[in-house]
Amino acid sequence: xxxxxxxxxxxxxxxxxxxxxxxxxxxxxxxxxxxxxxxxxxxxxxxxxxxxxxxxxxxxxxxxxxxxxxxxxxxxxxxxxxxxxxxxxxxxxxxxxxxxxxxxxxxxxxxxxxxxxxxxxxxxxxxxxxxxxxxxxxxxxxxxxxxxxxxxxxxxxxxxxxxxxxxxxxxxxxxxxxxxxxxxxxxxxxxxxxxxxxxxxxxxxxxxxxxxxxxxxxxxxxxxxxxxxxxxxxxxxxxxxxxxxxxxxxxxxxxxxxxxxxxxxxxxxxxxxxxxxxxxxxxxxxxxxx
Length: 290
Fold this sequence. Notes:
Largest sheet: 6 strands, parallel
Subunit structure: Monomer.
Low-confidence stretches: 1-54
Structural class: alpha/beta
Distance between the termini: 34 Å
Strand content: 15-25%
Number of strands: 12
EC number: 2.7.4.3
Mean pLDDT: 79
Keywords: Kinase, Nucleotide-binding, Transferase
Protein name: adenylate kinase
Enzyme class: transferase
Number of helices: 9
Shape: globular
Order of helices and strands: EEHEHEHHHEHEHEEEEEHEH
């Protein structure tokens, strides 16, 4: 399969910004015709903007206890955040919980700082403790569920989590490796505002087995163009090793939830305009603002 991906330089001021962790089933969302890169992008962008408004969720009050899994860079945070807004439940990323604890004066803060300062991994017990505290706080506030982002990552974590809360569904996002690699290498961060962008234009030619995949760049606004930086670890060698380690660690986790009939595997067919409505259909959900 041939793949081409172009890294866009920051656009001139004339270019407008197009942007802004129960049945077992293996879903191939790439069936049917693929999007032409020139078709319906404006309409899709308009619909996506509408779907992110603050209108009350029609699903509020229903219990959703969901987990998002997926390789680094696949877009777990993006889709988890969108579902969080649609369903009216919090999006909980364990990385955010650790950062919040590090910036506080809590009981775990000093111990966490000691671990992080020495480059050590945060033990499972700490993560579960922070997550349990967050879930309890949510329960006291009347939250009716949650979406966990990127956790658990090991079978041990999954087993411990079972003793803390009941997971209804685990959504495992997948993306073709060549697209995932290009996406990771195209990531950029604004050094001033902290905004996340992606300068990669991914265009994978189709063949007899897979349709064409097109993912446009997520370009920054003009005021951020000259301030873009790349993460030091976003090199091809490092990204490939990161993906190898992730796959090795999480395959047992996938099997853990597959045996429990809680795993939904969703192959991303392209960018957000194409993938979002298909993900909703796979989850038997409707976005009332679309």
